[in-house]
From TrEMBL, chain A:
Name the UniProt record assigns to this protein: Iron ABC transporter permease
Transmembrane annotation, as ranges: 12-30, 65-82, 94-113, 119-138, 150-170, 237-264, 276-293, 305-325
GO cellular component: plasma membrane
GO molecular function, one term: transmembrane transporter activity
Intracellular or extracellular location(s): Cell membrane
Species in which this protein is naturally found: Cohnella fermenti
Lineage per the UniProt record: Bacteria, Bacillati, Bacillota, Bacilli, Bacillales
TrEMBL record, chain B:
Official protein name in the record: Heme oxygenase
Xref: Gene3D superfamilies: 3.30.70.100, P-loop containing nucleotide triphosphate hydrolases
Pfam families reported for this sequence: ABC_tran (PF00005), ABM (PF03992)
SUPFAM superfamilies, per the entry: Dimeric alpha+beta barrel (SSF54909), P-loop containing nucleoside triphosphate hydrolases (SSF52540)
Record InterPro entries: AAA+_ATPase (IPR003593), ABC_transporter-like_ATP-bd (IPR003439), ABC_transporter-like_CS (IPR017871), ABM_dom (IPR007138), Dimeric_a/b-barrel (IPR011008), P-loop_NTPase (IPR027417), Siderophore_ABC-ATPase (IPR051535)
Domain ABC transporter: 1-240
Keyword Cell membrane tagged: yes
PANTHER family in alphabetical order: IRON(3+)-HYDROXAMATE IMPORT ATP-BINDING PROTEIN FHUC (PTHR42771)
Length: 332, 375
């Protein structure tokens, strides 16, 4: 593959992402137990429409779609950043303990202190960031090394997972509320969740593209990046912190949605290469579109049963991912 | 005039120690750090490039302590090409060379200025890879990739270039091409180049100044002609070589030596004093014993008869074994017992003494050195 082909591919995929995003938003707003046509969506959003449909859109679907967009974007950006900074294509927000920490905090909140259930997002967010920090500190030894972070992450994840399972087994009568959260999804998410998520998502997604250059240089190796005048330790810390913020925010409102953080950046990487100036924005848009589409499909395909989006993502994402891996030579 | 001054540098590591290194690296020249594997060459280079911090001592660039430069200032003064083969994203050669501008850009800015573009063009032209600028880096051969990396370092527009084994893993023609390129960069730009080199002959041919290291110390430094000789080759590399100084630069011809062999054995001597004239009787008796040849660990047997002492003759039976256990196995064997069982000690034996010797055998071939006036 030569440079022209690469640039063309970048351009066309970039252009294609816009209609894909719009289509998935329209799909999210229009589909469900009541179908609403595109023209009606237009009328409701900008003029007046059927009051019943208006209520469905404004109270249920629009906030849920917006939450989905942000969750997908945050998870994908987080995964892309972590894959780069860990120099490990299999890194995802789980590797820095965000999922396990958020999960444990959520289980504690929902099972042990159900009276404070309304604090769940804040609780999960705190747990996610705390466990990421613990992993980073455990891996610190006069400097951080990606390998150590990954290994410390595995150990801490196992520990937190064990504690979480222990709490659930001991309180097996009260875990009904936790299971959907652990599976990850957007069921019942609305304006308050958006309100919680929005500030972190805006901060994180605004800062993410600024990490592109540092991520590219870090990929060359610590020594090379340092020889180019980069403050490797500081950059790595900031990027991990940014990734934790993004993933923690997403996990705190959507639960443990797996796979978006792993699969979206990886798929984008296989398609357009791993230059972070492109990889980051493409992953953000791709993650947003995928999350909304998956959530909508999960709630409308099996109507009246609503499947957690995380379940659908895993079932459809894994085979798709394997196909991409088989065709790995796309870029290289 | 010294560009880089190293004073009493020292640092302890897990398995080795850098000790008391005081050197000056001349400005505008090519300096090679040479020595065996593990002698501390790369560690010294890493300290010069501020990738590792020494525990003791100081390094000055232009009389300014190395620590007082900011990261970016230092990267504008010194480019370092490590051996690290990190993951180069699928970028073009030009995009890679543009990374070299990072020390002169803000950390977030991705677009390059006119000044950057000019420096990138210059680096590509100087390394002769303009024709490759739009090729993807990973599609290039190893030698071309190395040139692109050097171009990236040049784009930093620094006055010092540090390289860690720039020619390793390249074929000979690319090795020479890279060395020629570095030499012409040095001559044209007055660039100070310091590199770790494995190939001493290349160092001798292309460098103005050598620093030879052995077990964390500098054992010799100076121009190649002044320091490379037979003794140097033996001390620093443990190699016997002929050094020909008649040409433009020292030519080193290593003389391969057969490997030193070392083994150990046990020699058992059985010395019998025998009445005069009866020596042959005893030898005949030994000849009948036999079967010892087949024993495990048996290396050989000698029978010696001495007839020149006055009162008695002396017969020495000497057997050689790989180990004492092997000998003891022989004395316990069926064949041995059979040969000794039904016989009484003959009268002609006056006395008998058995001695064990643990022997270490070292076969060290005599040095094969051509005597030459040049060496």
């Amino acid at each position: 593959m030569n440079v022209t082909a690469r640039n063309n591919r970048r351009r066309w995929i970039g252009i294609a992402l816009v209609p894909i995003l719009i289509a998935s938003v329209l799909y999210g707003i229009g589909s469900g137990s009541v179908s609403i046509s595109v023209s009606e969506i237009w009328r409701i959003l900008f003029n007046d429409g059927d009051p019943a449909h208006e209520a469905i859109i404004w109270n249920l679907r629009l906030p849920r779609v917006l939450v989905g967009l942000l969750v997908g974007a945050c998870l994908a950006a987080s995964g892309a950043l972590l894959q780069g900074v860990m120099r490990n294509p299999l890194a995802d927000p789980g590797i820095i303990g965000v999922s396990a920490g958020g999960g444990l905090a959520a289980v504690v909140a929902l099972v042990l202190f159900p009276q404070f259930g309304y604090l769940l997002p804040g609780f999960a967010f705190g747990g996610a960031l705390l466990s990421a920090l613990v992993i980073y500190l455990l891996a610190w030894d006069g400097g951080s090394s990606p390998t150590k972070i990954v290994l410390a992450g595995i150990a801490v994840n196992a520990l937190l997972g064990g504690v979480m399972n222990g709490i659930m087994v001991l309180n097996s009568d009260r875990i009904q509320s936790v299971i959907p959260w652990l599976a990850g999804g957007l069921s019942g998410r609305s304006w308050p969740h958006l309100q919680f998520l929005l500030p972190y998502a805006i901060i994180g997604l605004t800062l993410a593209p600024f990490a592109a250059k540092a991520s590219n240089l870090l990929a060359l190796g610590d020594q090379s990046a340092q020889s180019l005048g980069q403050h490797v330790e500081l950059q790595r810390f900031l990027i991990v912190a940014l990734a934790s913020l993004l993933a923690g925010a997403a996990v705190s409102v959507a639960g443990l949605v797996g796979f978006v953080g792993l699969i979206v950046p990886h798929a984008v990487r296989l398609l357009i290469g791993d230059d972070y100036r492109y990889l980051l924005p493409y992953s953000i848009v791709g993650g947003a579109a995928l999350m909304v589409a998956a959530d909508t499909a999960a709630r409308s395909w099996f109507d009246p049963i609503e499947l957690p989006a995380g379940v659908l993502l895993a079932c459809l994402g894994a085979p798709f991912f394997l196909i991409l891996l088989k065709r790995r030579r796309l870029v290289r | 005039m010294a560009e880089i001054r190293i004073e009493e540098l020292g640092s302890k590591f897990e398995h080795f120690e850098l000790q008391e290194i005081s050197e000056t690296i001349p400005r505008g020249q090519i300096t090679a750090i040479v020595g065996r594997n593990g002698s501390g060459k790369s560690t010294l280079l890493r300290m010069l490039g501020r990738l590792a911090r020494p525990e003791q001592g100081r390094i000055h660039y232009e009389d300014v302590p190395i620590g007082s430069y900011s990261r970016k200032e230092f990267a504008q003064l010194v480019s370092l090409l490590s051996q690290e083969k990190g993951h180069v994203p699928d970028i073009t050669v030009r995009e890679l060379v543009a990374y070299g501008r990072a020390p002169r850009q803000s950390s977030f800015r991705c677009r390059s200025t006119q000044e950057d573009e000019r420096a990138i063009d210059w680096a590509l032209a100087t390394t002769g890879i303009r024709h490759n600028e739009n090729r993807l880096f990973h599609t290039l051969s190893g030698g071309e990739q190395q040139k692109a990396r050097i171009a990236m370092a040049l784009a930093q527009e620094s006055s010092v270039l540090l390289l860690d084994e720039p020619t390793t893993y390249l074929d000979l023609s690319h090795q020479l091409e890279i060395m020629e390129m570095l030499k012409s960069l040095n001559r044209k730009l007055n660039l100070t180049i310091v590199m770790v080199l494995h190939d001493l002959q290349q160092a001798a041919a292309y460098c103005d100044h050598l620093i030879a290291m052995e077990e964390g110390r500098v054992v010799a430094s100076g121009p190649p002609r002044a320091i490379i000789n037979r003794r140097f080759m033996l001390n620093v590399f443990g190699v016997i070589a002929k050094v020909d100084l008649r040409g433009e630069y020292p030519i080193i011809i290593p003389i391969p030596q057969p490997p030193k062999e070392e083994s150990s054995m046990v020699i058992v001597t059985n010395v019998s004093q025998i009445t005069k004239g009866s020596g042959m009787l005893l030898i005949e008796r030994f000849n009948k014993v036999g079967k010892v040849e087949g024993m495990k660990g048996f290396l050989g047997l000698e029978v010696m008869l001495t007839e020149n002492t006055k009162e008695y003759d002396e017969v020495t039976v000497s057997t050689r074994w790989e180990s004492k256990e092997d000998f003891q196995a022989w004395t316990k064997s069926e064949a041995f017992r059979e040969s000794h069982a039904h016989r009484q000690t003959p009268e002609y034996i006056i006395s008998n003494k058995i001695v064990f010797y643990d022997v270490k055998v070292v076969r060290k071939p005599i040095e094969q050195v051509e005597n030459s006036n040049a060496s």
